[in-house]
Specification:
Blueprint lengths: L3 H19 L5 H6 L5 E8 L3 E2 L3 H11 L4 E4 L6 E2 L4 E8 H30 L7 E3 L9 H10 L13 E3 L1 H7 L2 H11 L6 E5 L2 H10 L3 E5 L3 H11 L4 E5 L17 E3 L2 H4 L6 E8 L2
Parallel strand pairs: 6-11, 7-8, 8-9, 9-10, 10-11
Antiparallel strand pairs: 1-5, 1-12, 2-4, 3-5
Helix pairs in contact: 1-3, 3-4, 4-5, 6-7, 7-8, 8-9
Length: 285
């Protein structure tokens, strides 16, 4: 759950931006049929099975439009929902319920979809020591929501942004002149408390990374046999991450490997939404 400071400083501006995108001058449809305040209630329904995530953000959309809006629910982020479940009710000015509906659902469906996909992928690694990680392949300006959803689905967050850790990828290595050179520069520049991760694409690069003292070695887009050989070369001298087009469909093929992490951009860039809807709006007064 986001704390109040995170909501005010990080989340609220993003939600307000989304609302401004959807309401440039007025909600002409709602204003046409509702000229003054009337209180109402609407049901939040699950239209398929999954993991719910983003309830706090969903409610915040409405309270930013009208602070008197209230949501009642017995669910919390990370809980499983079934098709047909009534997840909760939103009470407030009918105009607010109508105007905030799409933005609120967009956040909730997207976050719940990511949590559901993360949950399914994590389940495929059950019984192993491997941690499933997300990446920075997130929707611009939605990273805080998407990485939160990954955690609620049972997976883990990789670095949040470029300030969060040292990761030397192919272009960094090319710019530095090689694996050893890039690691040496990072060790000289970065604070000693930061681990240094390096991305490698072949066994020669693996050997260089080990010799240069990398803390984490990422095996990028290697075939299964090459990864097995790379793991033997590393021989527990560094933590090991596997990356490269890992999805729910192929993750089981690599879970037998003795590695610490598997990272998957698919968690955030390819997860489908969870189908949810606001239905049965009733005017109360």
């Amino acid at each position: 759950m986001f704390d109040q400071n995170t909501l005010r400083l990080q989340v609220d501006p993003l939600i307000l931006s989304a609302l401004k995108e959807d309401i440039t001058q007025e909600d002409v449809s709602t204003n046409a049929i509702m000229r003054e305040r009337r209180d109402g209630v609407v049901d939040l329904l699950a239209k398929e099975d999954g993991i719910i995530c983003g309830l706090q953000v969903f409610e915040r959309v409405f309270t930013l439009l009208d602070p008197t809006t209230k949501m009642e629910t017995s669910y919390h982020d990370g809980m499983a929902v079934k098709k047909g479940d009534c997840i909760g009710q939103v009470y407030g000015d009918v105009r607010t319920l109508l105007s905030g509906e799409r933005v609120a659902l967009n956040y909730l469906q997207r976050m719940s979809g990511i949590a559901t996909y993360a949950n399914k992928m994590s389940a495929l690694l059950k019984g192993t020591k491997i941690h499933l990680l997300d990446t920075r392949k997130t929707t611009p300006n939605n990273r805080i929501f998407e990485k939160y959803a990954v955690k609620m689905g049972g997976a883990y967050n990789h670095r949040y942004n470029l300030s969060d850790g040292v990761m030397l990828k192919d272009n960094h290595i090319d710019a530095a002149g090689g694996v050893k050179e890039a690691i040496a520069m990072a060790k000289e520049y970065a604070p000693f408390v930061r681990k240094i991760e390096v991305e490698v694409e072949n066994l020669d690069m693996v050997k260089e990374a080990v010799e240069a003292g990398a803390d984490i070695i990422m095996l990028d887009n290697m075939d299964h046999d090459t990864m097995k050989e790379a793991i033997q070369i590393i021989d527990h001298q560094a933590e090991i991450e596997i990356s490269g087009n890992v999805t729910k469909e192929n993750i089981e093929k690599i879970k037998d490997l003795d590695v610490d992490y598997i990272s998957s951009g698919a968690l955030t860039h390819s997860s489908p939404i969870l189908d949810l809807s606001l239905k049965h709006l009733h005017v109360l007064s």
